[in-house]
Every structure is written in structure tokens, then in C-alpha cells.
Amino acid sequence: MRDMTLTGLERLDAGAADADATFQMDEDAFRLFYDRTARPVWAYLARMTGDPRLADDLLQEAYYRFLRARATHDDDAHRRNYLFRIATNLAHDVRRRPRLDAAALADTDSAGDAADPRSGDVAADTARRLDLARAMSRLKPRERDLLWLAYAQGSSHGEIAETLGLKTSSIKMLLFRARRRLAALLRERAR
Amino acid sequence: MTECPREAEVFEAVAFGRWPAHAGADLQAHVAGCPVCRDVADVAPALHGDRQALMRASHPPTAGVVWWRATIRARAEATRTAMQPITLWQGIAAASIVGVVAALGGSLWEWSRTADRIGGLVTLLASRDAASLASFGFEHAALVLLVVVTCLVLAPVALYLALSDD
Question: Which among A47, A67, A183 has CB closest to B70?
Fold first, then answer.
């Protein structure tokens, strides 16, 4: 390769410094947005992948892709849905790898600080969450996404459709089927 | 039945921690008899509770760290992108040089084989026989075209390489 001159390197460095300008928001706006969304996105990634450590990596990747995206957002809700859409795609990519171990996440979560301090019944809480993790692992990826967004995240049908790239009109039926399957699996485990 | 008008009411009770203990008797009675709401009452508390527990257990890096890592990565990508045209032009230049050398080699070979024709051309030029001269030019049109095209390709490449460090 041809040796680069000092001028060339300086030019590259100057170009690289402009990388900050390629982000779709400034640092202050990002901090506010991140503080509002990081934990919910991490929880979503952790449950969808079943691996907290992987969720850490995917969280960084999700925000990087979000910052580099050229998309324009009408409001904060739209911005959040877009971030969840990126997270969903990342989780889908990971699903092509070896199957997740449902118990691993529940074990990690059973650490003392993860238990609901109000419940006072850490063992029962851990058992319930282990049942949920196992039941979720038996659902299709799309069903997991739908159920989490609807009942954990509390998203509306319109928001779910935007996040998953589906038609709003189809969400009701898809959600009904997914909910029925998960409810049956949870009842089966409760017996 | 795939939906129930009281479905949202059940989810709201779950989300605000009222289900089941602090939900109204009317709602509890409805859930007991409605398969849709019963499914919601089974699924929503499990997912909602799981989210709360996961969020308590999560330790995401600070916004500053995520921003800093993203900046570093963006710079690395910008540098890589900036290097791409240079590499491309180097490839084109190398391919052009190989092409020119091959073309020149071929030409020399051809010319050495037709040295007698050159002698003939000199004779033709000396005699100024226009018809014969045109015939000779047509026979070598492909060779002349090759040389012209090579020059047209090489000129901008040479110009770029000469000026790229300015």
C-alpha cells in the first residue's frame, strides 16, 4: 500500500472528527433519552435472548445503530419504538445461534437484589420467573416479541406494529394466539 | 371470541399493582368467566413482574460510556471509509499498469514480426501512395485503438496519483 503523507493523515483525522456530527442527536439529548430507555431495552434484550451478558453487548450495539441511523422521529415515542425495533432485529439475529438456556437467565435473576422486596417470597418469585422463562422459550420469537411489548412494556397495538414492522390490524389476532399459548403453558407448569 | 372490552381494564389493574387483591369484585368475577380476560390475567402479571425484576437486576453502562464507545467506533468507521477510495484507485492503477505492459509487449511482438511491413510502410511513405497507405492504416486500426484507449484510461489515473498528495 502506498505510504500516506502527513497531510493525508491529517485530512483523515479531520474527517474522523466529523463522525460526531453523523449522530442523529447531540450528547445531552442522548443522555436524556438513554436514561429513560436503557433499562427497559436491556430487560427486553435479556428476556428475548435469555443471556444477560449478551444483552449488555446488544444494548451497546442497539444504541450505536440508533445513533448512526438517518431516520427522523416525530416524537419521543416514535424514537423509542425505533430503538425497540433495532433491539428486536438484533435479538432475531442472535436467535439464529445455538438455542438459549432459559434457566441461565432465571438463575442470574435470582440474585438477592433481583427479587421483589415487597413480595417477601424470593423462592416463589424465582420459581414463577423460571416457569415464565421456560414457557417463553417454547414460543415462537415473534410471539415472544408481541407478548413482551404488549404486557411487559405496555405498548399499544400501533406501537407494537411499528416496532415489529407488522400491520396494526393484524396485531390483535396475533396477540390473541400468542397470549393463549403462553397462558396454556403457564397453567401447564402451575399444575 | 378473540377480544373483550374489559381486557384493557384487567391489564391496567395488573400494571398498577391492583391485581388481584385490590381489583374490584366485579372485575374479578368477570375474569373468572371470560376466557380472554383470564388469559390476560395469567400472562400479564407474569410478564410485568418479570420486567420489573429484570430492570432491577440490570446494570447498563452510563450514557457517557455508551456515547464514548459509539464515538470511537464511528471514528474508526469514518477512517476505514476514507481509506476505501485510495485502495480502489491503487487497484485500478495497478491493473492499468499490467494492462499497458501487456499491450506494449504484445505490440512489440507484433511489430517485430512485421518489421518487413514497417520497411514497406517507409517505402510507401516515400512513394506517397495514398491508397496503399489507407489500406495499411486499416489493418492496424485495432492496435492504434488499443493504444489510444490505454492513454485515455491512464491519463486520469496518473493525474489523480500525481495530485492526490497535494
Answer: A67
CA distance A162 to B150: 54
Show which of B57, B73, B96 is a domain's final residue.
B57
Q: What span, in angstroms and rounded, lies between the C-alpha atoms of A58 and A51?
A: 10
Asked if the C-beta of B46 comes within 8 angstroms of chain A's C-beta atoms, the answer is yes
Is the CATH code 3.40.50.720 the one for domain A24-105+121-190? no
Instruction: Write the DSSP assignment of A153-181 as a string of letters.
Output: S---HHHHHHHHT--HHHHHHHHHHHHHH
Per-residue pLDDT tens over the stretch A111-167: 444 445 555 577 888 888 899 999 999 999 999 999 999 999 999 999 999 999 999
Written as one string, the DSSP assignment of B2-18 is ---TTHHHHHHHHHTT-
- ipTM metric: 0.77
Interchain CB contact of B66 with A (< 8 Å):
yes
Over residues B27-69, the pLDDT tens digits come to 999 999 999 999 999 999 999 999 999 999 899 999 999 999 9
Rounded Cα gap, residues A90 and A62, in angstroms: 7
